Amino acid sequence: MSGKDRDLAGRGRGDRILREEIHDPYMARSKPKEPTVCPGCGAVFHKGRWQWAAEPAGQAHELMCPACERIRDDMPAGILTLSGGFLAKHRDEILKLIHNKVEEEKAEHPMKRLMSAEDGKEGELIVKFTDLHLPRGAGEAVERAYDGELEIQYTKESNLVRVYWNRDE
Ligand SMILES: [Zn+2]
Do residues 142 and 98 share a domain? Predict the structure, then answer.
């Protein structure tokens, strides 16, 4: 892969970028009145953030939440690409680990979702997320469980976080 046009970030620097410089245009353009309910997933915008909550009594506004918009547009905030010989042998258990990690996060944060998991041309597993932090969280969960190499990249121009995990044997 070519790193020419990417903002290559090591682990420590990646952390800083994720904290300080990341910008989510989907989140920024959604400033709904309160309370607002997403007709797609039922999340409620309340106290300045989207949460899982009972639908408010009385008149609530309706607006598609950023996660549902990203899924509709097929515009991931982050992509985790897994590769290597180890993956071929343990694909299902690794994918299950990622699903579990996402479910755990999603229970607290409605905007953190897995969009899709597809096989790449060279046997990679490409997992797309609605949230900027999930690819790293999921990648680190895989690294904790199976070792391997983790690399985090953030391209400012596209507001997209890309995380790569590889283990050969
Ligand atoms: Zn929604």
Answer: yes
Burial (0-12, 13-18, 19+ Cβ within 10 Å), 114: buried
The CA 166 to ligand 1 mean position distance, Å, reads 32
114: CA distance to ligand 1 center in Å?
13
Co-location of 102 and 143 in the same domain: yes
Range of the domain at 38: 31-64
Q: How many structural domains does the chain have?
A: 2
Give distance in angstroms: CA of 131 to centre of ligand 1.
13
pLDDT tens digits, one per residue of 63-90: 999 999 999 999 999 999 999 999 999 9
pTM attached to this predicted model: 0.83
Rounded distance from Cα 68 to ligand 1 centre (Å)? 4
110-160 confidence digits (pLDDT tens): 999 999 999 999 999 999 999 999 999 999 999 999 999 999 998 777 788
Contact 83, 162 (CB under 8 A): no
On the 0-12 / 13-18 / 19+ scale of CB atoms within 10 A, 122 is exposed
**Residue 2 forms part of a structural domain:** no
